[in-house]
Design a protein that fits this description.
The protein contains ten helices and six strands; from the N terminus they run H-E-H-E-H-H-E-H-H-E-H-H-E-H-E-H. The protein has 198 residues and is an alpha/beta fold. The protein has a single domain (2-195), classed as Phosphoenolpyruvate-binding domains (TIM Barrel), CATH 3.20.20.60. Strands 1-2-3-4-5-6 form a six-stranded parallel beta sheet.
């Protein structure tokens, strides 16, 4: 985390579930955002916001002079306000229930980004991997509409540049592409290709 922050990368953590102990641990070690899978209801989203924001907005516990504030001193109120403004809360919408409640989830202050988990979403819609299917396309449109209505970011993991362009054109403004392993292997292959005898 410290290395990422030191070179200008905002570190993010995808937690296994939207429970306080996972969210607090990620934020306390210094990440600047959390991604929460399978967000399906307003109640769940409220619990996530409470765990990730300091009072009065939330119920995040406070301790200072540690990793999340670079071990620095300073006014606690200023630190809490800065952390709440900086830390990104990304709700993954990847089930039919999540889509059903996406407008209420998006309306909640403290949820910053709606992230479409496309593979899981097609699975839960009963159409595994069918990204052109009307049920999936309609679900994505509902997420986009909720994000626009409530001025939330829209996120997507694009498998390639074609998908990145397609989802950017739909209004997604937080796009990830590639995986750690894939990017590493592409770099290794490039190095090997440049030194191989031809």
């Amino acid at each position: 985390m410290a290395h990422c922050r030191g070179i200008g990368i905002a570190p993010m953590v995808r937690v296994p579930r939207g429970e306080y102990h996972f969210l607090a641990r990620a934020l306390d070690i210094g990440c600047h955002g959390v991604m929460i899978p399978m967000v399906e209801s307003l109640e769940q989203a409220k619990a996530i916001v409470e765990a990730t924001r300091y009072p009065p907005t939330g119920r995040r516990g406070a301790a200072f002079g540690f990793a999340h504030d670079d071990y620095a001193g300073g006014d606690p109120h200023t630190k809490m306000k800065a952390a709440d403004a900086r830390n990104l809360v990304i709700a993954q919408i990847e089930t039919e229930r999540g889509v059903e409640h996406v407008d209420a989830i998006a309306a909640l202050p403290g949820i910053d980004v709606l992230w479409v988990g496309h593979f899981d979403l097609t699975n839960f819609l009963g159409i595994p991997g069918q990204f052109d299917h009307a049920k999936y396309v309609d679900a994505v449109k509902r997420v986009v509409a909720a994000g626009r209505k409530h001025k939330k970011g829209l996120g997507f993991m694009a498998a390639d540049t074609t998908w990145a362009r397609q989802y950017r054109d739909l209004g997604f403004n937080m796009l990830a592409t590639g995986t750690d392993h894939g990017i590493l292997m592409a770099g290794v292959r490039s190095i090997l290709a440049s030194v191989e005898d031809k």
